Amino acid sequence: MERVKRLLAERKRIAVLTGAGISAESGVPTFRGAGGLWRNYRPEEIACMEAFLRDPVLVWEWYLERKKGIAAVAPNAAHHLLARLETERGDFTLITQNVDGLHGRAGSRSILELHGNIWITRCLACERQARDESLVYPELPPKCPCGGTVRPHIVWFGEMLDPDILQASWAAAEGCDLFLVIGTSALVYPAASLPRVALEAGASVVEINPEPTPFSEAATVSLRMKAVEFAEAMQ
Ligand code: NAD
Ligand code: ZN
Questions:
Q1: Could you tell me which CATH number the domain at 29-72+118-154 has?
Q2: Where are the domains of the chain?
Q3: pTM summary value
Q4: Mean pLDDT throughout 75-91?
Q5: Which atom of ligand 1 is nearest to the CA of 98?
Q6: How confident is the model at residue 35 (pLDDT cuts 50, 70, 90)?
Q7: CATH class given for the domain over 2-27+74-115+161-233
């Protein structure tokens, strides 16, 4: 921990990658932890275009339940720490795999959301995006003003990441001198490549995760800690 505090004090260009684990202590379940199943479906069976085309109502019901769960919780000390670092440090990039919007609610301004955001919808027909905080709809699936079917603006299994967001994340990993990886299993590519990109570019990489991951051995420092514990230790 002391080494990480020193790194944070000394280094100038900071990038952070967060995953589902940073929101776990807010009460948003991770996919691989408890609560990963819903009505006996695995996320892969629901969060994909195939499922949406087959049964858009079922997919929307899943997202509405997740939206309700997220609306009922609050950002935690780890989200707040990252929001504070953004204002205090000039060169700071936040990259997240999370779709829950908790970083934004904690006050982070500039966020590279690799997997989209559950509070944004997108029309299948005209691609129109809209901020959408509805927790109930008069009909499912919801419709766009153009008449098209609306989906959550989330990168589903089998879909490509937004190339601009990926490019900006890659550039941040290559250009930083300290990279923090908080609460991600380092299993889902291409996000899982980012810590390695940072390491190869010469940055120190600090992992914060209560469980070991495939990346732990390569990390400069691997702290077996929960995200909130880490944030509190940084105070
Ligand atoms: P994951 O579920 O695969 O892994 C979560 C990781 O967090 C694990 O390594 C676990 O050990 C760690 N963890 C658990 N509790 C923690 C804590 N208190 N502090 C720190 N770390 C903790 O999640 P992932 O790697 O982010 O990838 C799964 C995909 O699912 C992501 O792409 C994401 O888009 C999506 N997802 C998002 C959310 C969300 O938005 N909150 C929730 C579930 C899944
Ligand atoms: Zn439309």
A1: 3.30.1600.10
A2: 2-27+74-115+161-233, 29-72+118-154
A3: 0.96
A4: 96
A5: 40
A6: low
A7: alpha beta
